[in-house]
Amino acid sequence: MIDWDVAVNTGIRLVRPGPQVDLADARQAVSQLRELSEEARGHVREFTGMDPLEPAGPAVIVDRPGWIRANVDGFRTVLEPILDRLGAERAAAGTAGALTTAVGSRVTGAQLGAVLSYLAGRVLGQYELFLPPDPDGNAPAGRLTLVAPNIVQAERELDVDPRDFRLWVCLHEETHRMQFSSTPWLRGYVQEQMQDLLLSSEMDAAAFLDRLRAAGEAVAEVVRGGEGSLIQAFQSEAQGEVMDRITAVMTLAEGHGDYVMDAVGPEVVPSVATIRRRFQRRREGANRIDRIIRQLLGLDLKMKQYEEGAVFVRKVVAQVGMEDFNKVWESPETLPTMAEIRDPESWIARVVGPGAPAREA
């Protein structure tokens, strides 16, 4: 259903080149990012009180094509078994011929590559949860990846101290690594939700055509300045319930990352206040075409996740302290729902206990 080679080739062909950096500066940036990722890990561990359960090396530093390849590998690891199953079911039902399937897979691959080419120029870093199995067939631990040209371009545009900015980015991404490496069930939970999202989709032709029409309406609505996204357009009612659970855990993870990267303090990142102010202004200052693309791809929703999640973390830590906040990582049952993220006191009452005293973070 997805031609992965087409996705990679399309993404790499369409992605814009990074900023002009001479060889010496490029090598220095790569070396410093590796060092700062390890430094950030220590700060995150000390601040959050979380302990990783698996060893972690320095971050992997990539360029934009490298980020595209890594993400196609991740998508393939998670999606291919499910797509193969769905494809076999459709073939058994006689709903897809070989030629139709082949053409459709190339079209879908090209679409995925086009989306990744856009994102590859904007992502600063990520914690890769799902990697291809090693030669023995074992699923490796996640990997922290930083996109060097995007970090350099952002620090130039913001006119901020390069070392401070690079450490600030590393603090956010190392927080994600800590979330998943210290919580053994979380990776499996996220993968299970993603699988449920796909398996709850309606694959018949009539439903697919309805979704295409809805997608067209969503594009027109966004261009007119309204609300909407392609994610919502292709989402069934059953998928909406699963998407709520995925949104809740990702809002928590992103908000926690944003909270930690700012709260570690000016002793570590002296210009953190300036960086945050200018970075937020950059997030909000996109041109109209960029805003349309961001909304259609659901990236504006991701920005909202940063904000709502950070408010939740900040309020819970302020009221009950970091130790009790960390109960969010104990099990799927202690994760907040989206309703609880918007009403932190309800999560505190359910998980920490009623009448929890306020404590210093």
Give a written overview of the molecule:
InterPro entries: CHP03883_F420-assoc, Zinicin_2, Zinicin_2_N. It comes from Nocardiopsis suaedae. This is Zinc-dependent metalloprotease. GO terms for molecular function: metallopeptidase activity. It holds the Pfam family Zincin_2. This protein has 16 helices and three strands. Helix content is 68%, strand content 3%. It is globular. The protein has a three-stranded mixed β-sheet with strand order 1-3-2, sandwiched between helices. The longest helix has 29 residues. About 9% of the residues have low confidence. Helix 10 crosses helix 13. It has 361 residues and is mainly α.
- Overall pLDDT score: 80
Distance between the termini: 49 Å
Indicate the low-confidence ranges by residue numbers.
Answer: 203-234
Helix content: 55-70%
SS field, number of helical segments: 16
Rounded to an integer in angstroms, the radius of gyration calculated over CA atoms is 21 Å
Query: Biggest sheet, in brief?
Result: 3 strands, mixed
- The overall strand count is 3
**Class by helix and strand content?**
mainly alpha
Pfam family, one: Zincin_2
Keywords: Hydrolase, Metalloprotease, Protease
InterPro entries: CHP03883_F420-assoc, Zinicin_2, Zinicin_2_N
Protein name: Zinc-dependent metalloprotease
